[in-house]
Design goal:
The complex is a heterodimer of chains A (224) and B (295). With 224 residues, chain A is of the alpha/beta class. Chain A has one domain (2-219): Rossmann fold (3-Layer(aba) Sandwich), CATH 3.40.50.300. Chain A has helices spanning 41-48, 71-78, 96-105, 111-124, 140-153, 170-185; strands at residues 2-11, 15-25, 30-34, 56-61, 64-65, 81-84, 158-162, 189-194, 206-211, 214-219. In chain A, strand 9 (206-211) and strand 10 (214-219) form a beta hairpin. In chain A, helix 3 packs across helix 4 (111-124) and helix 3 (96-105) packs parallel to helix 5 (140-153). Chain B folds into 2 domains: 3-53 and 163-292, no CATH class; 58-154, Alpha-Beta Plaits. Chain B has a 4-stranded antiparallel sheet. In chain B, helix 2 (19-56) crosses helix 8 (214-250). The longest helix of chain B is centred in the middle third of the chain and has 43 residues, at 157-199. The chains are: A alpha/beta (224), B alpha+beta (295). Chains A and B meet through helix 2 and helix 3 of A and helix 7 of B.
Amino acid sequence: MIELIKVSKTYPPDVTALTDISVTIGRGEMFFLIGMSGAGKTTLLKLLCSMETPTNGLIEVTGKPIHKLKGTALARLRQKIGVAYQDFKLLTDRTAAENIAISMEVSYKKPQIIRKRVVDLLEQLDLSDKHNTITGELSRGEQQRVTLARAVANSPALILVDEPTGNLDATTTERVMKLLNKCNSSGATIVIATHDDSIYRDTTHRVMELRKGRIHAVNGGMNA
Amino acid sequence: MNFWFTVFRQVGRNIRQTWPSQLMTLLTVSLSVLIFAFFYLVYTNMLSVGTKLGDDLRLIVYLEEQPGPEMQEQLRRKITNFDEVQEIRFISKIEAYDRFVNQLSQNKDVLEDMPHDFLPASIEVIPLKTLRGLTQIKLFSEYLAKLPGTIKVQYGQEWVERFYSFTRLLSIIVLLSGNLLILTTVFMVAYTIRLTIMGRQAELELLKLVGATNNYIRTPFLLEGLLQGLLGSTFGLLSLYLLFDWIKVQFSGPGLLTLFNFTFFPYSASFTIIGVSILLCTVGSFTSMQKFLRI
């Protein structure tokens, strides 16, 4: 599903975010990316969805070098990747439902399917009463869940999640993880960048730790 | 979901979000089309008036002496030497007097003491309809003036020259207003689309990230420009038609306007104006997208 071979990223003038990252993430795998703030987790996720281009190395997603794709080919691949951004990237003048629907609209899903999926996701994330609420009026935790709902709405093959539980209480964290596990069970590959050890502490999935932009350790993987 | 359904919904959203500037652009496009179409309408009608006048054009050659049959034949040959003409008519002094009497009708008494041959004999030359343009008429007139026994040649020079100058001025105004139309439509539409793009920067960025294709993002903006052109030019032409209709009703009595048959644009011209406006607005939209839409 994902191949990273000797990937490095340096921001101008010479801030090194990642150095020689090589890892393979299999189809249907749940993969945790951990490390302290500034370790390079977000940069790695941005490289995986082609928000950033690597300075060196090769990145392949579903067998395609994503950093070399452009135009329609890139758009089509991005439709298969759901991303929950750390800064949410919500349209704060639109309702929660409209924000979630966006990822399905670009794939030309039928309106009734979109409506049903939105209601379903809001229910799973305990946001049913926020269907028509403008996202600018939601709390940080609620906004975070709307972002996650948008990421999984289009049933993507790859879901990238950046700090999914940063603003959530224990119960809501559990709901979020339940939704991600459900997506994973349906076959989606999931990469979660986090420093919340409660969500990966007892996991059977692989956990890769980054330190100062380098791979420090890769543990687990019994379930992979 | 259908592509066009999504695009139209996006256009609706854009218009709702930036309706004051959209409305201003629509009014500007309408006004530009109205100004251009007004002058163009006057110009085309003047051209048809010119054609009509050309049809009625005749040159009168006043002669020193009334020519005899042989002289008439010689003059006829000389005239047709310059160019084929539609008709050459010789008017004798008596005939000229009779015409004058008819023209004076009730006031013919003023001629009571005048001799019946006080008016000069003349030749009425009706040129072919192919003889068009002030220069050609002038050349023909100069040629006729050189015929032996000619006193002078008249064809309403002053009036014809004024008319041609007026038509030339109109053609310049039409050109200028055409340029105004081009500038305002392209720039106003480009400006409005730019505002829309700026206002939706965050959304466009997100659309790109969730996998929207370039067509998905660009088509609504193009369609917006197209709609501005379509609606703006239609309103402009409709306003002109109402104005034209009003003027026709107001001046339907006897007067200068009744002398000529003023007509509105044929359908083909109206559709051309609408088509060109649509094209210009779409170009405005496209240039703005090329400049400000980074996808």
